[in-house]
Structures are given as C-alpha cells and as structure tokens.
C-alpha cells in the first residue's frame, strides 16, 4: 500500500479552513508562524496548555524560542485539565487580559485546544464569561488569532470550529461551533506524540473513529464526509494495533494523526449525533472519565441503533473492522470485539454507572445546551426510549 512507503518526514501543507503543517518535524514551523503573527500586529500571546506535556514533548522549547525571536510578550496558562471547566477558561482569559494578549497559542490535545478556542473568543468579548459562551447566551462573530499545536491523534479540534467545556455545577458538557474559532495555523507533528500513554493512544484514536461513524451517518452527511470516513477507518484499523504494539512507531503515529485530522474535517462537514451527545453526560458526571473511553463504551450500541437506517454506508465505511458481519447486532458485536482487541474492554458498569443512572443521563442529554441538536441529526429518531436503550445496551458487553 502507498502508505507503507510514504515519506512521513516530508512536511506537507494541508489546507482546510485551517492551514495545517503535518509531518515529523513540523513543530519547527512555529518559527514561521510566529513571524507571520508578528507581521500581522500580534504583540502579546497567551499560551494555553496542560500541566506538563507541553514541556515533556519538547514543543515548548520551540514555541518559547520562536516568541522570543519575534520579541513578543507571553504568559503561560498551564492549568487545563481533561474535560476543562468554565472556571478554568475564565481564569485563563483573565491572564490573557492582564497581559494584553492579542493572540492565543494552544499546546496540547483536545482539552487545551478547546479551552484556548474559548479564551480566543472571550478576549474579544471582554464583558462575557465562559458560562455565557457555553450556555449560548450570545453568538460570537470574532476571536483573536489562534494557533494550535496538537499533542494527540484523536480530537480533530485543530482543524474544526468546535469546542467543548464543562459547567460543573450543572453537570453540563455543552459544545459550541463558530467559524471564528478555526485555528489560523495548526501543527500536527507525530514526533510530539510518541510519549502518549498506552491508554491515551487507544482512547484518542477511538475518538477519531467515533467522529467518522457519526459524520457519515448524520442527516447532514455528504459525499466528502463519507469519503473521509472510509479512509479514517482504514487507517485506524491498520495503524492503531501497530501503535499499541510499539508506541515509538513513528509511521503508525503519523497515520493515526492524519486519520484524526481528516476525521476532524469529516465531522466539521457531516457533524455528529448520538455517540457524542450521549457521552458528554458521562464525562460531565465523572470528569475523570476519558472522553474516548466513554465513546468506546457506547458506540457499539449506537451502531446497532442506527444500522437499519444506515446499513449501506456503515457496511462500506466499517468494512476494515466489520467485514463479513451481517445485521445490526452482529455488526455491533464485531465492532465491540475489535475495540476489545486493542485493549479497551470497559463498559459502563465497569466505570461505575448503573441502570438506575440512566434516567438522569437521558435528562442531561435533553437539558445540556447543544446536545439535543446533535440528537436531532441522527439517522433514526432520537426518542427517550432510543437513548435509554443505547445506555442500557452499553452497561455490559453486547456480546
């Protein structure tokens, strides 16, 4: 196959709404990016990141040097946690305001990038808070320039207009989607990802897999989202086992990263439905639950629910994983078996959820801003009974 010999150290410029630099060594593009920001009038930059990976990966060494070379002021907000909260976004925004930041650089996976997108908006709307933003009390049209340096191969947030932040006191985990938060530039460098833990490697890749299972079956799916979905599944099926076996396999990391990126473009076009809408309440209730793990636990039941309405597309897109399976239950079981085969074997009961929690979960799907909109895009009607059954079927292995 062509991907067996493709030169992964040839840094490619890939244009979506965002200009993405993809390839081993792409982090060095930050010097060109910093120069461009300076020429565009950026004086001070807020860096939004997690607690340690930005340093451990070596990304910060290049970013700091690039900012100093351009004479830019900067401050680092390094308190973003998985499933970032509105309070964290407000804290970072205050740091940016105090600095006079007129651009944001995110370094991390989905959580730091999503938090940074939120900060980029709030630096333009100085009278608003993260809760205003995520309870949809206003529609932003502007954000300061954003650069995303991606450290995981799963979310696709470095190429899309989405962001997710939790409101803890309400157990809400809403999503926003605005054109103003497409990153101006993104860096996808697989050399920054060889240190991902085994669990992170699995969870983030399963996140990308979920993106395309949904994006190719929504009511708004289009030929482009379906085309990208097919290639995403092929690459993840081929390369995730390789990365699990050898975390230092740079070719595997490269193509998982590329798969994640095109999955982000796929759902930026086709959008999402059940799996993400039903996962968000899980990790809102249990913020320690990895988003990708939550998705892995419920996606077989989602596929089972939507298969009658999306049989032809799912058979074609999932063929590298479910080849030979027939019928909704068998396809769902085969998908679940594949997820188990890469080492993700938890179901909802294993993570502390019980049958008596389901009414609350259904209620959160209905009440959390934005999630009902995702449910409405599913290829089958998202009634309370359908949602309830997906949760029930996800408590234990379908097989």
From TrEMBL:
SUPFAM superfamilies: Dehydroquinate synthase-like
GO molecular function, one term: metal ion binding
Alphabetized UniProt keyword annotations: Oxidoreductase
Gene3D superfamilies noted in UniProt: 3.40.50.1970, Dehydroquinate synthase-like - alpha domain
InterPro entries: ADH_Fe/GldA, ADH_Fe_C, AdhA-like, Alcohol_dehydrogenase_Fe
Residues covered by the Fe-containing alcohol dehydrogenase-like C-terminal domain: 204-394
UniProt domain Alcohol dehydrogenase iron-type/glycerol dehydrogenase GldA: residue ranges: 18-190
Signal peptide positions on this chain: none
Family stated for the protein in its record: Belongs to the iron-containing alcohol dehydrogenase family.
The name this protein goes by in its record: Iron-containing alcohol dehydrogenase
Organism: Thermovirga lienii (strain ATCC BAA-1197 / DSM 17291 / Cas60314)
């Amino acid at each position: 196959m062509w991907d067996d010999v493709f030169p992964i150290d040839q840094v490619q410029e890939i244009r979506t709404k965002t200009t993405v630099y993809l390839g081993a060594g792409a982090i060095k593009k930050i010097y060109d990016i910093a120069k461009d920001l300076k020429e565009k009038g950026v004086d001070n930059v807020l860096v939004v990141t997690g607690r340690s990976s930005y340093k451990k990966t070596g990304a910060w060494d290049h970013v700091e040097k690039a900012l100093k070379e351009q004479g830019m002021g900067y401050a680092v907000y390094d308190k973003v946690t998985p499933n970032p909260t509105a309070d964290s976004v407000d804290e970072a925004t205050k740091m940016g305001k105090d600095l006079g930041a007129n651009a944001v650089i995110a370094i991390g996976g989905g959580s730091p990038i999503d938090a940074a997108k939120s900060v980029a908006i709030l630096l333009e709307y100085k009278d608003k808070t993260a809760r205003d933003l995520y309870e949809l009390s206003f529609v932003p049209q502007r954000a300061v320039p954003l650069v995303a340096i991606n450290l995981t191969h799963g979310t696709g947030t470095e190429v899309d207009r989405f962001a997710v932040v939790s409101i803890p006191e309400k157990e809400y985990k809403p999503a926003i989607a605005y054109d103003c938060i497409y990153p101006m530039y993104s860096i996808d460098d697989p050399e920054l990802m060889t240190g991902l833990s085994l669990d992170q490697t699995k969870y983030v890749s399963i996140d990308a897999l979920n993106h395309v299972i949904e994006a190719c079956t929504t009511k708004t799916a289009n030929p482009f989202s379906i085309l990208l979905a097919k290639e995403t599944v092929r690459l993840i099926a081929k390369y995730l086992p390789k990365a699990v076996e050898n975390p230092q396999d740079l070719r595997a990391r490269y193509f998982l990263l590329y798969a994640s990126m095109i999955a982000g473009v796929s759902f930026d076009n086709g959008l999402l439905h059940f799996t993400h809408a039903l996962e968000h309440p899980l990790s809102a209730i249990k913020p320690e639950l990895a988003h990708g793990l939550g998705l892995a636990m419920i996606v077989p039941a989602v596929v089972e629910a939507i298969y009658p309405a999306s049989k032809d597309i799912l058979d074609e897109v999932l063929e590298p994983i479910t080849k030979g399976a027939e019928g909704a239950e068998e396809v769902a079981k085969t998908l679940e078996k594949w997820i188990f085969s890469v080492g993700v074997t938890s179901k909802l009961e294993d993570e502390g959820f019980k049958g008596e929690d389901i009414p609350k979960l259904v209620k959160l799907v209905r009440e959390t801003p934005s999630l009902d909109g995702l449910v409405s895009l599913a290829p089958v009607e998202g009634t309370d009974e359908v949602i309830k059954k997906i949760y029930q079927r996800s408590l234990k292995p379908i097989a």
